[in-house]
Amino acid sequence: SRFRAARPGHAPKRLARAVGRGVRFLLSRQRPDGAFPGAWGVYLTYGTFHAVRGLRAAGLAADHPALRRAAE
């Protein structure tokens, strides 16, 4: 998403597909309780923070159901 913002004319269709695949992957990893798995000692906090940040950067609205579940 950062590259796409910095270079909007560079392969827009390819970048849109790549970002879309990333969004689908992240959403598929969300647990039923709304958290996202991560790594290290703060497993769910760390994972959820970065997943939400990535999903927002990819264009998901703050009121998207997955983001609301993550906030809860």
What's the topology here?
Elements: H1 2-6, H2 12-29, H3 43-57, H4 65-71
Short overview:
The protein has four helices and no strands. It is 62% helix and 0% strand.
Describe the structure.
This protein is mostly helical and 72 residues long. 62% of the residues lie in helices and 0% in strands.
How would you sum up the global shape? Answer: elongated
Nearest-angstrom radius of gyration? Answer: 13 Å
Helix segment tally: 4
Largest sheet geometry: none
Termini separation: 25 Å
Mean pLDDT: 92
Assign the structural class, choosing from mainly alpha, mainly beta, alpha/beta, alpha+beta, or little secondary structure: mainly alpha
Helix content class: 55-70%
Which range does the strand content fall in?
under 5%
Order of helices and strands: HHHH
Task: Enumerate the spans where pLDDT stays under 50 for 5 or more consecutive residues.
Answer: none
Number of strands: 0
Key features of this structure:
single chain, 72 residues, mainly alpha, 4 helices, 0% strand, elongated
